[in-house]
Amino acid sequence: MASVKKKIVKNTIANTLLKISQYVIGFLMFPFIISHVGVEDYGIYLLVGAFVGYFGLLDFGVGSALVKYVAQYTAKEDNKSINEMVSSSFAFYMGVGIVICLSILFIGTFYVGFFNMDPSQADKARLIAYLVAIGALTSWPMRSFASILPGLQRYDVGALIQFTRALVNAGATVYILLNGGGILDLIFWGIVIGAFSQLATVIVVQRFLPFLELKKEYMGMNAMRKIFTFSSVVFIGQIVGMIVLGTDRIVIGAFVSVAAITHYAIARKLHDIVHAASSLPASALLPAATELETKDNKAAIERLVFRGGKYKCALILGAATVIFVLAEPIINIWMGPEWIFMAQSTQVYISYWFVFAAWGVMGTVLLAQERFKPIMTLLSFNAILNLALSLILVQYYGLLGVVMGTVIPYFLIMPIIIPYGLRLMNIKFTTYMREVVLKTYPMVLAAGGLIYGIRYIFPNITDNLLGLGALGLAGVCTYFGLFYQFGLSYNEKKDIRRLFHKRR
Fold first, then answer.
1. What is the DSSP letter of 440?
2. What are the backbone dihedrals phi and psi of residue 370, each rounded to the nearest 5 degrees, phi first?
3. Fewer beta carbons below 10 Å: N end or C end of the chain?
4. Per-residue DSSP letters for 407-465?
5. In the predicted structure, residue 220 carries a pLDDT above the cut 80
6. What is the mean pLDDT of the chain?
7. What is the rounded (10 degree) CA torsion for 37, 40, 41, 44?
């Protein structure tokens, strides 16, 4: 368990640094890009992106399955099976890339005009679709290699490649827009930069796995059958996620306006900060949990559920509390006072995280144990209800109605899913509440109360970036300071102190 713990810590740190850098870059670039390309053009780009996101379902969960099986066969030192999995998935992704390219070309040519935009915008949307189609043809076959590094539990190397890509892309974006370029130029050079990062991934993977070969003799239905047996559950989860978070832009584009998609993107970007915080503790757990499951280490898996769930819950609640309370001043400083009207939608959007946080890392562990299928039935109902409510509420509340349609089902379904997931893992609900929930949720009141209290006493403190940053930092430090003091055991505190001591 010690070596597994080290891998989890190292990989989580790597993913954390990558996520923070990506969101800082994206957060800073967002108003800059909009100010240069305009609300309508960026809305068109997001609309096309929503369609492309649906084609992501054609992954069928193969990427996650490849992560699991690379980890499993690496633990068994079975090089032949790794070659079979990678070669078969590469052939699969090659076919998917061709299908997606042709499909996007077809949609761009015949169906872009369906949405609420004038003819000139429709022409630009078609050109964006054509560029994105080319990008799909070049990027999809490389997905096999992108899944190998996580399977080897070398998230640190993958994070370095992705960070370099994000940094180069940001620099290129600034240069292009300052020299009169537009959204089409950004997409083209984004594809080129992405291709170079994928090439770097292939080179690195070859160094880690010198025996790796893409050969026809390794490509077969037996390997794909095994992959699809696992990935079918992941695929359903991808459909659910796409319906919950991927249909919003399409509903808004069809029933409100293209410009409203950009308005929605403000709430979505703040929401995605919390989403990123939720993915950090779980991001490196699938291969680690697979390794423990392969070795049948049930005690270690239970400790993983409690400790990983507690850390994930704390990260979600810490981030959600600060953004929820400070949504209005954040948008004011970040985007300008003319965008403050999006504060209410942002707060509604973030609110479901206060319920979802208690789910912890149960989903990842159940997936590694191949016991996740029953949960997908409940999550599928959540997705159907989400879409139905969004289509109904958008008629009465516009953009806010779409956000409400996303949030309400979570408040209804999570009180059912959480105890059910624990029962599947043979973990007592009362024990989980004591070890995870009660050690993370009380701090929300303290941190939120502190921020509200300071704003009440000093109402102008958030009128500038320095005051807003200081208040946000005070809220974060309050939450995590109390979590460290009252939420962690003696041994957990010792592990954290040892970790920081080593870093120094």
1. T
2. 60, 40
3. C
4. HHHHHHHHHHHHHHHHHHTT--HHHHIIIIITTTSHHHHHHHHHHHHHHHHSTTGGGSH
5. no
6. 84
7. 150
